[in-house]
Amino acid sequence: MQDHSAHDHSGHDHSHIPKNETKIAIAAALTGAFMLAEVIGGVISGSLALIADAGHMLTDFASLMLAWLGFRLARRPADWKRTYGFDRFSVLAAFVNGISLFAIAGWILWEAVQRLSSPQEVLGGVMLWIALGGLAVNIIAFWVLTRGGEGENLNVRAAALHVMGDLLGSVAALVAALIIIWTGWTPIDPILSVLVAVIILRSAWKVVAQSGHILLEGAPDGFDRRAVVGDLRAEVPGLRDVRHVHAWSVTQERPMVTMVIELEAGSDARAAKQAIRARLDERHGIGHVTIEVEG
User: What is the similarity comment for this entry (predicted)?
Assistant: First the structure.
């Protein structure tokens, strides 16, 4: 006997999407607007730190727009071809964002090696003012993305990590500019760029690992099938066995579980299902459950 009522997606809460969509749009506008200034400033000053940050901001702008598109698509209802709707597009966007972080970090490392082997003149004054402006823009964008309670959304976190990489790039460019102004030692520019690239790689790995786990239908965070089965057996009256437990996430906010249960003779199947759903929701944070009763 299959419980079809658990398949209703119409009640899924998308109330977080408009706020997240607005955050992404603001961050994209700020990033895109200042990107050109960093490109011009980096070329004029000869600073790799500024050029690297500008390249990162270019990637960020494209990634933020992709994330924004993900939220726009997630608002569309499910159809006969996509019965879960378009929510997972935002996870795919986060995965692409993470991969792009790897690419930009690799480019920064390569360019830094070239600069260290062949030092170039850097105009510290121009670099300083551009870096200060970039720092201010990135602080505002990061604040917009992380304020409120939507920071746990994987797509917003991926976007915030991009902006954090930009922010660190601006800090590195600022420090490099000050050292160049005070000492004239230009190798500090590519050296700090390498430090930023390493930080970016660390952030990229987290985003790719988490989004890839969801795309590969991995179990939701904190979900241990063995512990869940033991808990249900102990807490649900009349439940003899739980088998074929499968858990995955459409998005980070939409974990789902399917299972086959066996009941003691004379047990009320409807009451058992209700008890299982209530336990999974309250104890494990899973509100969408499909239950099949065997026998």
Answer: Belongs to the cation diffusion facilitator (CDF) transporter (TC 2.A.4) family. SLC30A subfamily.
Domain CATH for 155: 1.20.1510.10
The 3-state DSSP class for residue 240 equals strand
Instruction: Please give the backbone phi and psi of residue 86, each rounded to the nearest 5 degrees, phi first.
Output: -110, 15
Phi, psi of 240 (to 5 degrees): -90, -40
Q: Indicate whether 211 and 88 sit together in one domain.
A: yes
How far does Cα 61 stand from its chain's mean position? Answer: 15
Digit-coded pLDDT (tens) for 8-25: 333 344 445 567 778 888
Q: Cβ atoms within 10 A of the Cβ of 290, count? A: 16
Nearest in space to 287 (alpha carbons), one of 261, 259, 255: 255
Domain of residue 281, residue span: 225-294
The number of CA neighbours under 13 Å toward the Cβ of 57 is 32
Written as one letter, the residue type at 162 is H
| Residues with Cβ within 8 Å of residue 167, at least 6 apart in sequence | 135, 138, 139, 142
**Number of other residues whose CB lies within 10 A of the CB of residue 253:** 18
- The pLDDT value recorded for residue 213 is 94
Tokens of 207: 């985003």
Q: Distance between CA atoms of 21 and 200, rounded to whole angstroms?
A: 24
Please, what is the Cα angle at 160 between 154 and 162, to 5 degrees?
105
Establish if 220 belongs to a structural domain. Answer: no
Q: Is 230 a member of any domain? A: yes
Edge-to-edge strand order for the sheet containing 255-263? 239-249, 255-263, 288-294
